[in-house]
């Protein structure tokens, strides 16, 4: 029962990250995890704080994969929070393994149906690009599909890129999610004020 509640919490997070159902996913995650800690029972707030901090670091790692350490620390904190709540390492691993397996199944199903981080990234990018100034839009007329450039900042998924000998910084959107700084990119599409790029 407890493992199922934990799994529902992770599924809620997956729905919030991968689909437009952010509010519903976040609500499911909060309710399921609150119920999990309620049924298990905990005498202090420390396990919940550790678990929550670990979960946030793991989510951060998903959006900023090059950071690295946050994911490892997040997993350690998450397991520590569960262990301090349950008091049994075997049950902790069993509950966590069960929840990870069913969440992985849901994520695979969502990906097969066209959901991915790139969908979230594109929404973020469109919002950022729409705020570009008219002068930037004029400069973008010089950028053509297939033109090569270099990421001056990390693209998460939006960021700055320079093209060729031109030192002008252009606002772009990555169609492949996170792209690290100094990575070579290629213009995939130019539409109005929007420039979308991918790794070279």
From TrEMBL:
Q: Name one GO cellular component term.
A: plasma membrane
Can the keyword Hydrolase be found in this entry's annotation?
Answer: yes
Q: Does the keyword Transmembrane apply?
A: yes
Signal peptide positions are none
Subcellular localization is given as: Membrane
**Which positions, given as ranges, span the membrane?**
35-60, 67-86, 92-111
The protein's GO terms of the molecular function aspect are: peptidase activity
Q: How does it sit in the membrane?
A: Multi-pass membrane protein
Q: Which UniProt keywords apply?
A: Hydrolase, Membrane, Protease, Transmembrane, Transmembrane helix
List the InterPro entries: Membrane_assoc_protease, NA-bd_OB-fold, NfeD-like_C, NfeD_membrane
Which parts of the sequence belong to the NfeD-like C-terminal domain? 145-199
The biological processes this protein is annotated with in GO are: proteolysis
Tell me where in this chain the NfeD integral membrane domain is found.
3-108
Origin: domain of life = Bacteria
Q: What is this protein called?
A: Membrane-bound serine protease (ClpP class)
At the highest ranks, the source species' classification is: Bacteria, Bacillati, Bacillota, Bacilli, Lactobacillales
